[in-house]
Specification:
The chain is mainly alpha-helical. The longest helix is centred in the first third of the chain and has 33 residues. The chain folds into two domains: 113 residues, no CATH class; 87 residues. It is elongated, with a radius of gyration of 26 Å. Helix 1 packs antiparallel against helix 3. 53% of the residues lie in helices and 9% in strands. A two-stranded antiparallel sheet has the order 1-2. It is a multi-pass membrane protein. Its main location: membrane. Keywords: Acyltransferase, Membrane, Transferase, Transmembrane, Transmembrane helix.
Length: 235
C-alpha cells in the first residue's frame, strides 16, 4: 500500500493521504478533498460568527431604540428600580425568543468550531493529518514509558507516520511504506521519532500540496506505480 494511504472500514476502500472519516459530510477526507474540507470548516465558522453578530446587533439596536437603559421597572412589591442586565435579558428573551436562542446557539457553536478550524489549519501548514497526529501522540507516550522518564519530550516539529505491518506491507510482499517503528531497534526508532519530518515541505510547499492543482497529477502518477492488486480510490 502506498505511503500515507489507509483503509477506511466505513467506506470499505483505501484513501490517499487519509485524514479521517467525517460523519458530518458522510465521506472520507483525504488528499483529493482535504482543501475543500478546510474551506467547508472556514465557511461554517464564518456563518456562525456572522449569525452571532447579526443577532446581538439586532438586540442592541432594539435596546437603543426603546431606550431601555433609561427606563425603570417595578418589582413585586411595587418598588421602582433602575434597569439592569438580568431584567433586559429577560425582556429580550420574552420579546424575541428565537433571535436570542439563535444568537446564543451560534455563540456556543463558534467557540469549539474556532478551535477545530485552528487545529486543521495547523495540520495544513505542517502537512500532517489527524491520523498522523494521534499516531505521533501515541508514539510520544510509548517513548516516555520505554525511556522511564516522564520529562522526556519529543520535538514539537516532529512528523512521524507509522501504520503498522498490515498497513505498510502490500500484497505479496510489495512494499512502498516505511518499516513499523515497533520492528526497529530502540536507537533507530528514537532517531526516527526525533527526525520524523517526512512530509513537511515548508509553509508554501505544504499549502501547495493540499490546496494546489497538482494533487490530481500526483494521484495519477502514484496510481501508475501501484501494483494492479492494490488499486485505491482517491478521496
Amino acid at each position: 500500500m502506498p505511503a500515507r494511504c489507509r483503509h477506511c472500514v466505513r467506506c470499505d476502500h483505501c484513501v490517499f493521504r487519509m485524514e479521517h472519516h467525517c460523519v458530518w459530510t458522510n465521506c472520507c477526507i483525504g488528499g483529493h478533498n482535504a482543501g475543500y474540507f478546510v474551506m467547508f470548516l472556514l465557511s461554517s465558522l464564518v456563518m456562525t460568527l456572522n449569525a452571532t453578530w447579526l443577532c446581538f446587533k439586532m438586540l442592541r439596536k432594539y435596546v437603543e431604540m426603546k431606550g431601555l437603559w433609561a427606563a425603570q421597572y417595578v418589582d413585586d412589591e411595587g418598588m421602582m428600580h433602575p434597569m439592569d442586565w438580568p431584567t433586559i435579558i429577560q425582556h429580550l428573551f420574552m420579546s424575541f425568543p428565537r433571535v436570542v436562542g439563535l444568537g446564543c446557539t451560534s455563540l456556543l457553536l463558534s467557540a469549539p468550531l474556532t478551535g477545530y478550524v485552528g487545529f486543521h489549519l495547523w495540520l495544513l501548514c505542517t502537512n500532517r493529518t489527524t491520523y498522523e497526529y494521534w499516531r505521533l501522540s501515541k508514539l510520544r507516550q510509548k517513548t516516555r514509558i520505554e525511556s522511564g522518564r516522564e520529562s522526556f519530550h519529543l520535538s514539537k516539529k516532529m512528523h512521524l507516520y507509522d501504520d503498522g505491518v498490515d498497513e505498510v506491507s502490500g500484497v505479496d510482499g510489495y512494499y512502498t511504506g516505511m518499516p513499523p517503528i515497533e520492528d526497529c531497534p530502540s536507537s533507530i526508532s528514537r532517531r526516527l521519532a526525533w527526525n520524523g519530518q517526512f512530509y513537511d515541505r515548508g509553509l508554501w510547499g505544504n499549502l501547495s500540496e493540499v490546496l494546489g492543482y497538482h494533487i490530481t497529477d500526483t494521484l495519477r502518477e502514484l496510481r501508475r506505480k501501484v501494483h494492479p492488486q492494490m488499486e485505491f480510490r482517491p478521496q
